[in-house]
Amino acid sequence: MNIAIIDDVAEDRLRLEQVLLDYRKIHQLDMIFCHFTSGEAILQNYRPFQYAVIFLDIFMADMSGIETARIIREMDDDVSIVFLTASEIHRSDAFSLFASAYLSKPVSSDRVFRTMDHLLRLKTQDGQRINISYNRQDYSLRCADIVSLEKGGNYMFIADRNGQTYRTRMTFSEAENLVDSRFLVLMKGLMVNMDFIQQIKDNQCMMLDGSVFPLHIKKSRELRQQWLNYKFASIRGKMNVPEHNS
Q1: CB contact burial 128-167 (16+ within 10 A = b; e otherwise)
Q2: Is residue 244 in a domain?
Q3: What is the torsion angle, in degrees rounded to the nearest 10, for the CA atoms of residue 77, residue 80, residue 82 and residue 83?
Q4: β-pair partners for 36
Q5: CA-CA distances (angstroms) from residue 175 to 155, 181, 239, 241?
Q6: CATH number at residue 151
Q7: For FRET with 31, which of 71, 167, 168, 209 sits at 20 to 30 Å CA-CA?
Q8: How far apart are CA 100 and CA 53, in angstroms?
Q9: 137 in Cβ contact with 103 (< 8 Å)
Q10: Angle between helices 109-127 and 10-27 (to 10 degrees)
Q11: Is there a contact between 53 and 82 (Cβ–Cβ < 8 Å)?
C-alpha cells in the first residue's frame, strides 16, 4: 500500500509517518511512504491508482491542499484523501472533494488509527472476491466488478462490468452466500450490484450498461427503497470523516 504525505513542514511529515509506522507494525501491513513538500511535487508525475491514501496538508506556501485535491480528483476517483489542518474553514470544501477524513494538527495517534481502520474496511469490502470455474479455467472475480448474477438451469450466469459473462455450476443460494451486501435480489434467481443501478421504476431495474431486469412486482417499492438506502449509506460512508479535535 503506497501512502503519500504532503506537507511543507518536515517536522509534521515525520510526525505523521511515525504514527503510521506504529500502525503498520501493530497490524503487520505492507506500507510504503512517499513524502512531498508541495502539491506541485505530487502532481508532477501523478497517475491514477498510484496511492491508496493521500494525507494532505491544506495550508501550504504555494498551491493549497484544496487546490491539489481538486486536480487529483479530476484524475483519480479511487484514492482516499485525508486532509490535515489547524482550521475548520475548509471543511465544506473537503466534503465536496469526497474527503475520507479531516484531521486537526498536530495529528493524534488515535485519530490516525481510527481513520486507517475506516479506510481499510472500505478497501477490504472493495476487494472481496468470488472464485469460480468457467470453460475449465479458474477465475477470481471482484464483487465490485460484477454487475449481475442470474440463475439458468443448473448454472449461474455472472456478468461483469466489461461485458464478459461467465457460466458456472452453482446454486442461487451458494451465490448469495459468496457476494457482499451491495447485491440486491430482484427476484428468485436474479440479483444485481446496486453500484451499477441507474434507476428503478415501473417494476423494472435499469442498469448503467443499458440492460433492464424485471422486479418482483409485489416488492418493487421495497426494492427501490432498499437501493436508495444503499446509495445514501454509500455516500455517507465516503464522507463519514472522523470529527475534528476541539
Answers
A1: ebbebebeeeebebebbebbbbbbeeeebebbbeeeeebe
A2: no
A3: -10
A4: 6
A5: 10, 12, 31, 33
A6: 2.40.50.1020
A7: 71
A8: 9
A9: no
A10: 60
A11: yes
Same domain, yes or no: 219 and 120? no
Strand, coil or helix: 244: coil
End-of-domain residue from the set 108, 126, 144: 126
Query: pTM of the entire structure?
Result: 0.55
What contacts 50, CB < 8 A, 6 or more positions away? Answer: 2, 76, 79
Cis previous bond, 214, omega within 30: no
Nearest-angstrom CA–CA distance, 122 and 198: 22
Domain count, the chain: 2
The two beta strands, 165-169 and 2-6, are unpaired
For residue 199, give its domain range.
130-235
Instruction: Give the length of the chain.
Output: 246
String of DSSP letters for 89-100: TTHHHHHHTT-S
Integer Cα distance of 182 and 188 in angstroms:
17
Record the cell numbers describing residue 2, joined without a space. 503506497
- Do 93 and 150 share a structural domain? no
In tens digits, the chain (246 residues) has pLDDT values of 889 999 999 999 999 999 999 999 998 888 899 999 999 999 998 988 788 899 999 999 889 999 999 999 998 887 889 999 877 776 777 767 888 888 988 889 999 999 998 888 766 555 678 889 999 888 888 888 899 999 999 999 999 988 999 999 999 999 999 988 889 999 999 999 999 999 998 889 999 989 999 998 888 889 999 998 888 766 545 444 444 443
